[in-house]
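Write out the 3D structure for:
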Amino acid sequence: MHHDPYSLTAEFYDLVGEQQWAHSDQALASALAGVDVTHGPVLDLGAGTGRSTAVIARTLPDAAILAVEPSPGMRAALTSRVVRDTDLSGRVTVIAATAEEVPLPHRLSAAVLCGVVGYLDATRRRRLWDKLLRRLRPGAPVVVELMALTSPQRVPPMRIARRTLGEQTYESWLSGEPAGHDLMRWSATWRVFQGETVVREVDVEHEWYTFGIDDLAAETGMTGRMLTPELGILVRT
């Protein structure tokens, strides 16, 4: 497996994801609405190409944002998004680090964790929660991306997106298999068609620990609820 599968697929990320993320964008904005941003920056951990960063910025126009992304390919798209937008470029700091490496300020107003928590086993998650909880005030939200599976199970290949750009059509496929008592191995395929002919195909695999929002609430001592099948919120008590 490539050590950075996201750099292999960064070019497809926004192209095929519009229909998937439209509902999640709304849920994320609702979860963050009204957050007191005077306590510190908002952390966008696993910022990807910056879609979540832009939602945070629109929802909280006075917030400073720390956009953390370890993948160089994804971070290139993130930085490009930020630099093209005068508002974002004045408020967003892009940080190249993993969840475990990132240096954080003493205080945070909220946190958004997309494409992050499932890469960490229970021990590493506990270290992340400790790092975050010390910086959040009571009532602060932590929005977490989930995989809609609370335990490993076989997921047959399914097409999750299709999009045409110019003369080419892009498809995204996903399948999964159990890889342990709490671990899934996901296989993702991106295909580029010229007419009916596949002119390019990119395959990547990654492993993701399974859990539900109740599991995360128990780990953290926070209260939790689902926002969408793929997005949950934990609230610092």
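The chain has two domains: 5-148+211-235, 155-209.
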